[in-house]
Amino acid sequence: MEAFKINRLKEIIRAVSDLMNTLGVAVVSLGVLWGLFGFARG
Question: Mind listing the pLDDT tens digit for each residue in 8-22?
């Protein structure tokens, strides 16, 4: 039973870190696009 909990926790942590990676990439991409847009306008 303990092992099951630990595995579940590991799965959740992995899913969260994947989500964080995806969000990080999205935020960086938006930042770059925003920077290019501002540079092109200014």
Answer: 999 999 999 999 999
